Amino acid sequence: MASGHNSHQIGLDIDLWLRMSQRRPSVKERETWTAPTFVLQRKKLNAAWSATQTQLVVAAADSPTVARIFVSPAIKRYFCDHFPTAAWQFRLRPWWGHEEHLHVRLTCPVGATRCVNQAPPTDNGCGADLDWWFSKEADDEWSKLISDKAPRVFPDIPVACDDLPNR
Question: Where are the domains of the chain?
Fold first, then answer.
């Protein structure tokens, strides 16, 4: 994805499109494809959502090398409704702008002494915190976010990156 997520600078974050293809894209396609949304008006999965997307999310969430996955609140609600007791449910967290992709945060690699894992959430995320995303307050917050015309500000690259070759 050429979306410019700033958290990817530390090397533990990856984006996975929910779009699936039966073939490998050409170089031109890879650089110009866009991902279709799977969510209607932030709150409901559309008809394009299928077992394929479900299997991708479950495979990622069930991996012990995954710490968190940000998904659309509608996607999180789907998994709360269909997999309420899944051991990996706590890894799925709702966040703005994840209607067409998963934002996956990996756990620290073995031996990465300067890497600190996030503490796991204390619940599965299917309660009141999820309900907020479907509230009038969340709608108002979303309206403010999308109407903000200020340029994006990216954080400085971490000092540890100075040690990397070819920076």
Answer: 11-147
Q: How many residues appear in the chain?
A: 167
Q: In terms of Cα–Cα distance, which of 116, 57, 136 is closest to 92?
A: 57
25-77 residue pLDDT tens: 899 988 888 888 999 999 999 999 999 999 999 999 999 999 999 999 999 99
The pTM for the full model equals: 0.84
Q: Is 97 helix (H, G, I), strand (E, B) or coil?
A: coil
Q: What is the spatial order of strands in the sheet that 66-71 belongs to?
A: 13-17, 101-106, 66-71, 92-94
Record the tokens describing residue 134, joined without a space.
Answer: 């479907």
Structure tokens that stand for 120 in this block: 């796991």
DSSP run (H or E) holding 103: strand 101-106
Measured between alpha carbons, how far is 120 from 97 in angstroms, rounded to an integer? 22
Q: Which residues pair with 101 in a beta bridge?
A: 17
How far apart CA 135 and CA 164 sit, in angstroms, is 44
Task: For domain 11-147, say whether CATH 3.30.1380.10 is its number.
Answer: yes
**Distances in Å between the alpha carbon of 44 and those of 4, 52, 83, 104, 156?**
26, 17, 17, 21, 36
Residue-wise pLDDT tens digits, 71-97: 999 999 999 999 999 999 999 999 999
List the structure tokens of 100: 């067409």
